[in-house]
Amino acid sequence: MAVQCKPIPALYTVYILRSTVRHASLYIGSTPNPPRRLSQHNGLVRGGAARTSRATLRPWEMVALVSGFPSMTAALKFEWALTNPHISVHIPSSSRLAVSTQVKANGQPRRPSKSLASVMSNLHLLLRVPSFERWPLKVHFFNRDVFSAWEKWRAATTEQLRPSLPVVTDFGREAAASGNETSEAAHETPDGRGLHTWGIHALPLDYEPIKEYVAKGQEIFDFGRQGRCVVCEEEMRAGKGLQALCTNTGCDGVGHLSCWGRHFLASGDAGSVVPVSGQCPKCQGAVHWGEMMRELTLRVRGQKDVDKLLRRKRPSGAKKAAA
Ligand SMILES: [Zn+2]
Ligand SMILES: [Zn+2]
Fold it and tell me: What is the pTM for the complete model shown?
């Protein structure tokens, strides 16, 4: 099945990995499962990248990541642009901060070595380019000094990020470590789910956070209770185009996807080319386009995922071996 036929993934991230031994060693990657991927980089489970296999640089830690990619392809594009800012078409050459002066034999500029400051400035830059700005991305920082590097860059530049772009921090390790810093690896379990409930271990890997919303959608659409479009007020007919549901609890407002889009662009997103967020005409609550798209794509393309999410979980301890 082609990638575009899948529902929006529950989680897809682009992460920044740093050696806890040598802070100058940075690596950028992407994954739907950060805890499992970190275990791979640290050699606890199979599948780490060759560049992170040197024992002297382990353990690695994920110091920051970006979530909210609408597909694996989207995350790979962002990862590539962040890894290759010197040649990425997404970054105008005048804004390429880590400009390389060296040229390889094939004429391509040599990839500049990554420093934390250059990664932060390039991340800031990528989050502002139109092709990425429309995605419902969220930036997470798990280390105070990395967040400081981000803040330092943010204060130094006059360029503004979209105000609705969420930037969250979780420095749980500091609270837990109480001065005596323990290695991340010590807290890992073989299945990649650590003992922690903070940082990358607190990220939802499945659709559980939107379970109630998905259940509401099933109830309305399975029983043909769409009613009238909240925007154009026409009667909604089953199977007639894409129909999206308000994200707010208790609101059963449904609208044509094109009507929601037009409504968002005319109000909250004025000046934007693609809808990001707006207000539901029925409940007046805030609605985020990205969240609405997750329910829509799950309902339309991911019935299997919906069934899995809404069915009661089978008792744990199933025979399936840990990955
Ligand atoms: Zn309509
Ligand atoms: Zn509503």
Answer: 0.80
